[in-house]
Amino acid sequence: MNDKELVAFKAAKLAKNGMVIGLGTGSTANYFIEHLAKRQSDEGLSISTVASSTISAIKAESCGLKVVAISQLSRINLYVDGADEITPNLSLLKGRGQDLVMEKLLAKAANQFIVVADKGKLVSRIGEKFIIPIEVIPDAWKMVKHQLEKHGAKGDIRLNTGKDNVAVSAHGSYILDMHFPEHISDEALNTLLNNTTGVVEHGVFYGIASQVLIADNGNIEVMLTQKPL
Ligand code: 5RP
């Protein structure tokens, strides 16, 4: 097993009979889906899942998991997802893809949000390696960009893979990919983006993770927050 699979395997052990489990998006989340499905078939576990993206729903169904529509649920027991960056205080950067609205919704609706990643995701501050994805109402993208530039942000609207149009998120938003000055803390960045009108959602997950499982060459380290599980 590589490190991403190892940590996903460990997280799948947290599933219990009767749980509603949120499925993240990405390669580590895919391993989680596979190991969850394996536990379901090996142990006869009765679980329902809810997916953070169409691609994860397709994967889960193909593995034999029952996938429930998010609109049917008000809370879930467990949400397991990867991340692009993780700081020592468990702030996360997520949403490299275009599904961060659903990812944050499920992360916040979960009694436990478990992050699974390899050691390469550890950083000292959010934005150290990656740009911050910010989903915006299409009509507001220039105004939001201007507001953020006043705080020293630099970046632009995301283009599609063919570079012949703008990218559109799973929820019909445009996406700004922005860098912010180093002196802005994770908390301040989260507050700034939460308070900017026109922002639908953003990739900074501040104070949401319950636990982070980090795999490093076959060993797993558990990083905890003060948030009660
Ligand atoms: C997608 C995400 C992913 O969880 C993040 O990009 C990590 O992906 P991977 O497990 O493939 O490294 O936030 O929106």
Instruction: Give the biggest beta sheet.
Output: 6 strands, mixed
Q: Strand arrangement, largest sheet?
A: 2-1-3-6-12-13
Output the number of helix runs: 6
| Bound molecule kinds, no repeats | ribulose-5-phosphate
**Which percent bin holds the helix content?**
25-40%
Order of helices and strands: HEHEHEEEHEEHEEHEEEE
Structure description:
By secondary structure, the protein is α/β, with parallel strands linked by helices. It has two domains: 3-122 and 206-224, Rossmann fold, CATH 3.40.50.1360; 132-201, ACT domain (Alpha-Beta Plaits). It has six helices and 13 strands. Helix 1 packs across helix 2. The structure holds ribulose-5-phosphate (5RP). Residues 24-29, 81-84, 94-97, 99-100, 103 line the site of ribulose-5-phosphate (5RP).
Write a short abstract of this structure.
This protein has 229 residues and is an alpha/beta fold. Helices cover 28% and strands 26% of the residues. It is globular and about 55 Å long.
